[in-house]
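Late entry, written up from scratch paper. The run itself happened at the end of the previous shift, but nothing got recorded in the book at the time, so transcribing now.
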Amino acid sequence: MNPLRDPRDRRLPRVPDPCVLVVFGVTGDLARKKLIPAVYDLANRGLLPPGFVLLGFARRDWGDGDFETVAKEAARKGARTEFRDDVWQRLAEAIRFLPGAFDDDAAFDKLAETLREVDASHGTLGNAAFYLSIPPAAFPVVLQQMERTGMADNARSGGWRRVVVEKPFGHDLGSAQELNQMVDKVFGAQDVFRIDHYLGKETVQNLLALRFANTLFEPIWNAHHIDSVQITMAEDVGIESRAGFYEETGAARDVLQNHLLQLMALTAMEEPSSFDAEALRTEKRKVLGAIRPPKDLARYTVRGQYDQGWLAGQRVSGYRSEKDVAADSRTETYAAVRLEVETRRWAGVPFYLRTGKRLPRRVTEIAVLFRKAPHLPFSKTDTEELGSNQLVVRVQPDEGMTLRFGSKVPGSAMEVRDVAMDFLYGEAFTESSPEAYERLLLDVLLGDASLFPHNQEVEDSWRVIDPIEQFWAEGGEPELYRAGEWGPAAADEMLAGDGRAWRRP
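Output as recorded:
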């Protein structure tokens, strides 16, 4: 390392040390659609070290050649960057596959032996990251196998060993604590990366730049000027082939507990002392620890389930008609809640969070709605079409931001109407934004945990969601809403009771 270079200077590309990326469950959808394309994109951008090995582990009777064929097709279909045969050939030389079941001691002994072999052949320096792209129920046996074989031991390997855990992080507070204890028993706390792919999106990271690199917004980022905040993750698809997972999870556990509460924490957090992992986590934890479940759960929580309807000109079936879904299922596909952050900055400001499937369009956004001006100099007719000022951070799909404010309509009369200023990443920068998994995989290999929730953040989030889930479990049926609508009527009524309305993205 250049001793004259500031280690915080990230303008130059960061390339990890030589290492192995071991993907458990490499034949699953996540690996094929996200992880393998992300590895190819990193290789295409020159961000993987010369000594890099991709090692897949799954219950398939494949050899290296079979896996390479599947991986190549996955990269060709899912890569963000142009597919180049020369890049793939270099990557393919370092692809390995091991078949085996998670409870097969011999298979894990072979995996440990293979890691030693590639260490000698590719110079990986004992460094390895293990990606658990597997159901949470399989975590205990895989972690026990890694502990038994010494694969998780930094001292024994002579390098670093890290583990990546996919959500959901448990299904309630108790199971999350058990999972955290289980992982932390095998790996050191600094070597555990709990991945939430939303935190790898460029626009989410830009929220920090928007707030803390500019003097424009921070003075008004408080209860004196902000009326409310709405955080939305809407999907136009149904559950597709995930019925088994979704029936056990539901919308609140799947999205509210992790994605939306993390976005809320980033929106409400105080300025960190730096952007390293510990400082960011400290400020996010302060927010999550200051959130309380609504006192009136009947009024300020809503759950719904999509029924048959029309979406994009096509007739779609209801949730209970989906394959492998129980005919009397009470699983929610829509969840909305009003939360507050009990700090001086945010006292009295409601945060409305909502997520749902089979909604009119796919969109994730953070909308900050400011208090209305008194309009004392204007007559009522001058401003009757003027709404509140809004700052909208679009996380996906049209990454960017919109600032909405009032402007006079040209003409002899005084009429003020809403106008918008738009910023789009695709138009402002020549380089396209990396995919979330691309950024997060690179951070794992670099050992940068800034964008990964700490175990305490996970537990704090469950403390918010658990009382809501318990209330719903004791209550009645979720309210039906037609596919193609913006959720159940109760969600609109929740905001109407506060004198507000949902923003229509």
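Confidence is low (pLDDT under 50) at residues 1-6.
(Scratch paper discarded after transcription.)
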